[in-house]
UniProtKB/TrEMBL annotation:
PANTHER family per record: PROTEIN ROOT INITIATION DEFECTIVE 3-LIKE, WD-REPEAT PROTEIN 18
Keywords, sorted A to Z: Repeat, WD repeat
One GO CC term on file: rixosome complex
Extent of the signal sequence: none
Source organism, top-level taxon: Eukaryota
Keyword 4Fe-4S: no
Gene3D superfamilies: YVTN repeat-like/Quinoprotein amine dehydrogenase (2.130.10.10)
UniProt protein name: Protein ROOT INITIATION DEFECTIVE 3-like
High-level lineage: Eukaryota, Viridiplantae, Streptophyta, Embryophyta, Tracheophyta
């Protein structure tokens, strides 16, 4: 990730009161850079979209029938958020790596997926029987993973979720993982050395490592306290597990896969002590590990020495959400920013709509664009509207139209390549499982044949013995 200037900002919010809002600090100096009023989000309810927007699921927000809302702020102009009111309150939210989709989970167990460009509600379905506590995309965006308050983890195929033919039907469940015994508090997806890997944490005091393709549990790490947050270092070698008592456990990541370079024996984890209440979220910046807690503080750690480099005090309330963003995202769009990096988002539909709407959009556009270009028509849209805009722009022979068409073609090809790779991997593993089943069936068949032959031989031997005994003379 290339962050111009190299400086970072820390964004935090609380779940205590809407009046607390969002606070943004400079990671190096500790100075407060920005305060956005009117925000309170439950855990996993804050994200940064394409390094240009903040998205937060609001709790206890008036104006929504379900008592919730989703606000979207452009980072270069955070005074005018886009206010969305879904059918019910939303807790955890997540976005795909390319920023095309936003997913939200509700306390009712329902899940929602929106297309960012036109705000279209693509699918809503009953994902869990209990409240959703975490939702994430797999490392390649091909799978959606959801965790609930009862400890269940479910894995959904994005192909099934986005299938138009299945609109309104219950999507196909890829895997259901049932090993945790308490609420899921964190989900992390990585590519792994030979297969996609999922790491989960729970209030049951364990972190588990899963093979995402096979849906198989690989490793379980047990801790002496409930685990409330997890994070991986940028090299994906160390697992950081924050606990309910304020400790942060540092251990080597052991995926349990064959040939994994980090397959090491379990040992006593290193412990970072600095918080006196539950850890709510963990993240990594260029400067080190960042932890936040219900003790109203966030700490920046030097992981190698276990020393706190900087403390951020948040006296207005416990920090429940935290993201690290490039400081340059807070500045106005400059002439040096590429056109392809600018896009806009739309109001999120409350109900599924038959057509796309262009109302209520936020647009980030480079100031270097020619006045001849109709600025409101440039943006990151759904495929149909985007193609129409490209045709309109091509009539003016603008370089932006050619660039837009090229970027769209590249994104479509990359998405198709990811989907193809995912399907090929699924087929490969299904073939392997089929061969194993056939081999087991052949072995069982061979064993059954041998058993029948032994029984037949025993019966024949018994019959011969009876005939021989019947031919012997009897003596009185």
């Amino acid at each position: 990730m290339d962050w111009s200037g190299g400086r970072e900002a820390l964004v935090v919010c609380s779940d205590r009161s809407m009046s607390v809002g969002i606070t943004v600090w400079d990671m190096v100096s500790g100075d407060q850079l920005l305060h956005i009023p009117t925000c309170a989000a439950s855990p996993h309810g804050l994200l940064c979209l394409r390094e240009q927007f903040l998205v937060a699921s609001q709790i206890h927000r008036h104006g929504s029938l379900g008592g919730g809302a989703i606000f979207i702020w452009p980072l270069n102009k955070p005074q005018s958020p886009l206010r969305n009111y879904p059918m019910e309150a939303i807790g955890p939210v997540s976005c795909s790596k390319d920023g095309v989709y936003i997913v939200g989970g509700a306390p009712s167990g329902n899940a929602y997926i929106w297309e960012v460009a036109d705000g279209r509600l693509l699918k809503t379905w009953r994902a869990h029987h209990k409240s959703l506590t975490s939702v994430v995309f797999s490392d390649d965006d091909s799978l959606l993973i959801s965790g609930s308050d009862d400890g269940m983890i479910r894995v959904w195929s994005m192909i099934s979720l986005l299938d138009i033919a299945d609109c309104g039907r219950f999507p196909s469940l890829f895997h259901s993982l049932l090993e945790h015994t308490s609420s899921i508090t964190g989900l992390l997806s990585i590519s792994g050395s030979s297969s996609p890997v999922l790491i989960s944490s729970s209030l049951d005091g364990t972190c588990k490592v899963w093979d995402l393709v096979r849906g198989r549990l690989l490793r379980t790490r047990v801790f002496p306290a409930a685990i409330t947050a997890i994070a991986l270092d940028p090299g994906e070698q160390l697992l950081f597990s924050g606990s309910a008592d304020g400790r942060i456990f540092v251990s080597m990541l052991d995926t349990g896969l064959v040939g994994d370079p980090f397959d090491v024996p379990e040992n006593q984890p290193i412990v970072l002590n600095g918080h006196n209440r539950s850890i709510t979220t963990l993240a990594f910046s260029r400067l080190g590990l960042v932890s936040a807690s219900r003790d109203c503080t966030a700490h920046l750690w030097d992981v190698a020495s276990g020393v706190i480099i900087r403390r951020f005090n948040h006296p207005k309330g416990a920090i429940t959400n935290m993201v690290v963003i490039p400081k340059s995202s807070l500045l106005s769009v400059t002439n040096h920013q590429r056109f392809s990096n600018q896009f806009r988002v739309s109001l999120l539909d409350k109900y599924p709509q038959p057509g796309n709407s262009s109302m209520g959009m936020i647009t980030l556009l480079p100031s270097c664009c020619s006045n001849r270009v109709h600025l409101p028509t440039i943006g990151f849209q759904s495929t149909a509207s985007l193609n129409q805009q490209i045709l309109d722009l091509e009539q003016e022979c603008t370089p932006g139209a050619i660039q837009m068409k090229l970027e769209t073609s590249i994104e479509n090809r990359m998405w198709a390549a990811r989907m193809t790779k995912h399907v090929m991997e699924m087929n490969k593993h299904l073939q392997s499982r089929l061969l194993d089943l056939m081999q087991n069936r052949l072995l069982l068949s061979a064993d059954s044949t041998a058993t029948r032959k032994r029984k037949k031989a025993m019966l024949e031997s018994s019959r011969i013995q009876e005939e021989e005994q019947s031919q012997l003379p009897s003596y009185q």
